[in-house]
Amino acid sequence: MITLLMIAPVAVPAAGAIAYLLAGWRPATAWLAPWCTALTLAAAIALAADRPGPRTALGGLLRADPLTEFMLIVIGSVGLLATAATPAWLRGEIAAGRATPATASRYSVLVQAFLAAMAIAVLAANLGVTWVAIEGTTIVTAFLVGQRRTKAAVEAAWKYVVICSAGIALALLGLLLLNAAAHAAAAGPGLDWARLAAVAPRLNPAVTRIAVALLIVGFGTKAGLAPLHAWLPDAHGQAPAPVSALMSGVLLSVAFCAILRVKAIADPAVGTGFARLLLAVLGLGSLLLAASLLIRQRDYKRMLAYSSIEHMGVIALGAAVGGPLALTAVLLHMLGHGLAKGSLFVSAGRMLQVTGTSRIDGVRSLAAKGPLLAGCAAAGVLALAGFPPFSVFASEIGIVRAGFAAGLGWATSIALALTLVIAAVLLGHTSRMLLGPDAGGGPATGHVTGQATGPFTGRGTGLPGGGAGLPGTGAELPGNGAGLPGNGAALPGNGAALAGNGAGLAPAVAALAACAALGVYAGPLTTLLHSAAGTLTGTP
Amino acid sequence: VTGYAQWLDLTCGALLVTAVVIVWRRRLSAIIATLALQGAALAALAAILAVHARDARLGVVAAGVLALRAVALPWLLGRALGASGPGSGGGPGSGADSGAGPGSGAGSGDRESRPLVNVTASLLAVAVLVLVAYAVSRPLTALRPSPAAAAIPVGIAVTLTGFFVLVTRRRAVSQLAGFLLMDNGITATGFLTTADAGLLVEFGVSLDVLLAVVVLRVLTSRMRDTFGDTDLDDLRELHD
């Protein structure tokens, strides 16, 4: 039974992928994906509810400990959000002529394969298999990022594959060196992380230090940490909205989970100081970068992507702090951020379908045109900015408290200041999108939106965020004008998109509610979080 | 035993020399041919280690390396080049652009026309990278002294060179070559540390590399369809 529960998170999406491959995407199969993810989530919860402690399956190939179970719950819940939002999103795309049932089928196959690869990455008992699965996610999602085949999409996909593959190749070198160190220390632990952790105190410190640095930078690439973050805003900006939700909400956390495993091996081998310094530097670097690039951001999907870099920076800082309190907060942050960011990307996808632009100054007074959509976006941004009652608030407080207690006061203060700046910027951009003055005004019909866009291009320069003083403004205007025909073309689909508004946004609302509920009362999840943090610190 | 050490040094020397040649040459077809040669050297390295350790499984791995790195991947790269070569000449605007490069002469599609760092500086940089590799891998060679361990810096140097090529080249195919160079270096390091990573992992890694190259090859042809060229200078849509 346990074996079955452990295989399910991989086998169910794999079966879903095969089903989509054979049957294609049709109204009858549209809801297959959410059912698959729901089943996966149920298996993860059942696995977590079972007695704690590590269990292996398939001859030691898969291992489930509390950390694995928690990560499976993250994959399942954000995956459920993204796949449940998919049918409405795909219908909108097909109605607008940007997708065909054939692309929808391919999309569904790839998303299921993506979910299966992520499940393998967290379930694998061998760090090498985790590596293979994480690189596998790059290959699968490359086609999802480049799905639209526009210049920007192809460019984003190219950058994504090259940077992620090169970065993660560094992690492979680190794995080989770690393997060599383990081989010299004891007979045949291989790359099984539980056995590596057991022999860790006997590993050669000099070799392990090189290996750990390579592994953290390498997996950090995939987790969106600076300095190898450059793929992230492009890929998240160009990918289909539900895929952005999955990449931002889960994939980054799955890659970071590998860093947590590496740190658990590194700390006994080379002392806690080494990984701590490295993670603190990467975390602060990511926060600084996100803050500086968010201020003059003009595209709301890229804005969300930079916010992901920010949150991965916070998570890296929490991991640098280490200890049960910080790690519990880090894990809670992964789930809270995944739910909030996932729902925001779903809302952003709807926004893109309704307004036809992903530019921040292309969207105005959304609160009047689509109150539900605006409400979702507002609540999501408040959650990301760390407002209570959302769980991001609780986890950030936890990380900050643990940071001061662990003597990382300087890093924590800088991080706190940067998160405040980012929160202010995010709220500023969003409030202009939701409440900013609309030239046309009134409730949106397709017609009014079309007329309203004209005055916008003129007004853009006058607005503070339009960047009147920025050197890019001149070059920006022609692009804006060129965007207009596309804008008009999207309008026929507008009515249909607005009609399906409620159905499409229900998953986003549910995810935000879950995020808020989690901040108020984590319930039985608290035990799981504590034992997962215990697995990493070696104090179960 | 001395024969073993000499053969080992010979193949590792071949790895390093081919890496330098890839940095030196600007014709993409020459780069691809050199990559195939390097793949063969890598397979020979694995075969020598297999004979020395009397390890039949490593022999199978050597055959796999030969098939993948010396035949399949260079062939895929050649296909990507074949697809982008004629296209770049006929592409609107871009053909004139790359033809205007100094001394590019005939077949501009087959050349790395404007690397970020010129060839002389690149060769100097590679020399520095080799020194860095020797300095960094001192603990590795000391871990378990043996003729194979003494050659580990070569693997690291090839990896660093690959990363350098990846970062400084502008054409899609050159970047791909850099990626493969990096991967060859990592594989060589894996062989030379003589610690077995497990057949499953080795197979998975090879499969991932193959698929990544296939994906990039598909993207190259899409790039040619949408940009009319595979010069990555044209990738300027997305920036902040």
First-last Cα distance of chain B: 58 Å
What's the story with the biggest beta sheet of chain A?
Answer: 2 strands, antiparallel
Tell me the radius of gyration of chain A: 23 Å
- Please report which band the strand proportion of chain B falls in: under 5%, 5-15%, 15-25%, 25-35%, 35-45% or over 45%: under 5%
Which pair has the most extensive contact?
A-B, 52 and 45 residues
Rounded Rg of chain B = 19 Å
What is the terminal separation of chain A in angstroms? 24 Å
Structure summary, number of beta strands of chain A: 2
Q: How much helix is in the residues of chain B?
A: over 70%
- The structural class of chain B is mainly alpha
Shape descriptor of chain A: globular
Instruction: Tell me, rounded to a whole number, the average pLDDT of chain A.
Output: 86
Mean pLDDT of chain B: 84
Q: Which structural class should the secondary elements of chain A be placed in? A: mainly alpha
Report on this structure.
The complex is a heterodimer of chains A (540) and B (240). Chain A is mostly helical. Chain A has 22 helices and two strands. In chain A, helix 16 packs parallel to helix 21. The radius of gyration of chain A is 23 Å and the shape is globular. Chain B is globular. By secondary structure, chain B is mostly helical. Chain B has ten helices and no strands. Chain B has helices at residues 2-24, 28-53, 56-90, 94-99, 119-136, 138-143, 147-150, 152-168, 172-192, 199-227. Chain B starts with a helix and ends in a 13-residue tail after the last helix. In chain B, 77% of the residues lie in helices and 0% in strands. The interface between A and B is large, with 52 and 45 residues.
